[in-house]
Amino acid sequence: MDTTDIRRAQLGDLNALLALEQACFSNDRLSKRSFRHFIQASQSTLLVAEHSGVILAYGLVWHHKGTRLARLYSLAVSPEARGAGLASRLLARLEQNAAERGRLYMRLEVAKNNTRAIALYQARDYRIFGEYSDYYDDHTDALRMQKQIRTLSQEGAQHSTPWYQQTTEFSCGPASLMMAMASFAKGVECSQTMELDIWREATTIFMTSGHGGCHPLGLALAARRREFEVQAWINNDQPLFLDGVRSDHKKSIMAVVHNHFVTQCAAEGVAVNYAEVSQDTVEDWLQNGFAVVVLISTYRLDGKKAPHWVVVTGVDDQCFYLHDPDLDTKTQLAIDCQHVPIAREDFARMTAFGSNRLRTAVAIRPATH
After folding, report:
1. d(CA 141, CA 150)
2. 104 and 131: one domain?
3. pLDDT one-digit tens code per residue, 192-229
4. What positions does the domain N-acetyltransferase occupy (predicted)?
5. What element of type H or E holds 318?
6. Which of 107, 125, 151 is the last residue of a domain?
């Protein structure tokens, strides 16, 4: 197999890829339409290993937009070509390609009973960090594995945080705040009931479209009322989120809500700092035992300029790590939204929202009495 060529898949490979899929898998097979999509999609890398004009293997990786995370979507080697190290060669090339595209981690799922594949991944330094029950069509469990494909400093601040998926399109703020609160094991159980309760307490009423999102001071008050010490930082002391709203009526309502939150914070002892939220600020919070919820713009994730709340789970010399409560069930698994690595330069751009470059965050920890 020394003369095997590894190259990008082309549309002319579709029939060979489909035949290889049929030969390698009995369940969860990719369709011809799926292969066509992955060959053409800019966010995917589909490589094939070819020997004497015959495709013996393929590997497929998806590069998540706006993050430094890649996911090994599928890896297949024809039965007659196994045992010659082809899977390891192909995987190494996929890792190299992902690293060259700025990705920091490769993640994958593998059937718990697929000992041969697990051994391959472990030999290439993938580590198990979780599992899914009843994951595949045949009800087999899956292990979740991850490898750091670019060298990072192991020093940094971390905050152990459970992950929760928001249940509405407008409740990322409550979902993120619940994750932050639950990280302290204070008996906080993330639930839709609490998610909606917090949204009602913290909503801006209106937003650019649809239901209103959540105001940082509203989230801060919700945490304070649940017996947390709270710091809210905003680099703007004017009513927030108005620049994307056209209706004067909506703007006036949002301004009333903003001013009322300011009054409530003063009355309830919530510290509000009208100052720039720097990366050092966030890192200091983590090092001092705070959980941090931060507002980002989703532009670098989905091409839309929407405000979105996430929770910071860690930081090192190159990246911030986020739990994103918004799971796109069509293209993502829960793993794709957990401890998502964001390079520092990307984080700096992502945390400035709107034409006014709003930066805001809420830091919490259990109150001491």
Report:
1. 29
2. yes
3. 999 999 999 999 999 877 889 999 999 999 999 999 99
4. 4-150
5. none
6. 151
Tell me how many domains the chain contains: 2
Residues 167 and 40 in one domain: no
pLDDT band of residue 249 (cuts 50, 70, 90) is: very high
Burial, 186: exposed, middle or buried (Cβ in 10 Å; 0-12, 13-18, 19+)? exposed
Give DSSP secondary structure letters for 125-177: T-EEEEEESS-STT---EEEEEEE-S---S-EEE--------SSTT-HHHHHH
Tokens of 117: 């594949």
Contact (Cβ atoms closer than 8 angstroms) between residue 240 and residue 359: no
Nearest in space to 191 (alpha carbons), one of 166, 225, 228, 172: 166
Listed residues 130, 151, 172: the one ending a domain: 151
Say yes or no: 335 and 200 in one domain: yes
Range of 225's domain?
A: 157-366
CA distance 162 to 338: 9
Q: At 204, list the tokens.
A: 């801006």
Side chain identity, residue 209: S
Burial class (CB in 10 A: 0-12, 13-18, 19+), 100: exposed
**Residue 12 and residue 118 in one domain:** yes
Q: At what angle do helices 216-224 and 192-202 cross, to 10 degrees?
A: 120
Which residues, other chains included, contact 274 with Cβ-Cβ below 8 Å and sequence gap of 6+? Answer: 233, 234, 235, 236, 237
Neighbours of 202 (CB within 10 A): 27
- Do 354 and 275 form a contact (C-beta atoms < 8 A)? no
- What is the C-alpha to C-alpha distance for residues 210 and 168, in angstroms, rounded to an integer? 11
For 17-48, the pLDDT digits (tens) are 999 999 999 888 999 999 999 999 999 999 99
